[in-house]
Amino acid sequence: MEIIKVLVAIILSYCLIYFIDIMATSMYPPANIVTLHVKYGQSYHLENQWSHGKSYLDICDQAVCSATTKYSVVTDKMPDRSRQKTGTWKIESATGLADGTTLSVGDLIYLRNQWSSGEQSYLDLCGPASSSNKYPMVTDLNPDRAGVGTGTWKIESAKGSPDGTPVSVGDVIYLHNQWTGMTPYLAVDCIASSLPTTRFTVVGDMELNEARTKTKTYTWKFISLR
After folding, report:
1. Which among 71, 194, 204, 226 could disulfide-bond with 135, CB atoms 3.0 to 4.6 Å apart, if both were Cys?
2. 96 in the same domain as 12
3. What is the C-alpha separation between 139 and 4, in angstroms, rounded?
4. Same domain as 161, residue 120
5. DSSP 8-class letter at 91
6. Chain segment 105-118, per-residue pLDDT in tens
């Protein structure tokens, strides 16, 4: 009988603990996860989602294309390789939206590099296409160097969200260049060897096909600064 009483007491204790836990959860529910929308006028890292290794959009070395061209564009293992903001990009509206406005799918933007030790410059497409129909990526002092959309980028959802959908930090997106001659997508390409942590060259690629979609060479995320 004593053993039965002890077992009953243990069972009642567990039931009481479970009841208290349920009551506490109902009275104090978990805090809602705050969604961080991407905003115009703010700066972010851009993380490429290649399935064999992620890396961050970065500038490195002087580039040659036009009189206002500044730097070559690569990706790096580090979000801020030099600790001088070479991997930091400020979002500016190509259609006059005010700073502080939430970025949405379908928006047209400029991406301005925030390198702190040199001239700030904009992500741009410049130069002839390779035999595989890929265009070199550089930065330029002007947001729209030639006035034909080479520095303008359209935000597209990699999950198929419609235009007007707010973009949040961590959402998967495509960056679609708006050059009037062609409209390639921003993608990683060949292995680059500029610095020990450099990963890939970056190109404007015309071939957005199923195979490349699966490997995510075109897919990017806005990442908050650390």
Report:
1. 204
2. no
3. 79
4. yes
5. E
6. 999 999 999 999 98
Query: Cα 185 to the chain's mean position, in Å?
Result: 13
User: Which is more confident, 196 or 90?
Assistant: 90
Number of domains in the chain: 2
Taking the alpha carbons at both ends of the chain, their separation in whole angstroms is 63
User: Domain range for residue 12?
Assistant: 1-30
Structure tokens at 108: 């047209």
Residues 10 and 108 both lie in one domain: no
Examine the domain organization and report whether 107 and 16 are in the same domain.
no
Quick one: how far is CA 105 from the chain centroid? 13
The rounded distance, in Å, linking the Cα atoms of 217 and 205 is: 10
152, 206: one domain: yes
pTM above 0.85, yes or no: no
> For the domain that residue 207 is a member of, what is the CATH number?
2.80.10.50
CA atoms within 13 Å, Cβ hemisphere of 141: 10
Contact status, residue 150 vs residue 117, Cβ threshold 8 Å:
no
Q: Is the dihedral of CA 141, 143, 149, 151 positive or negative?
A: positive
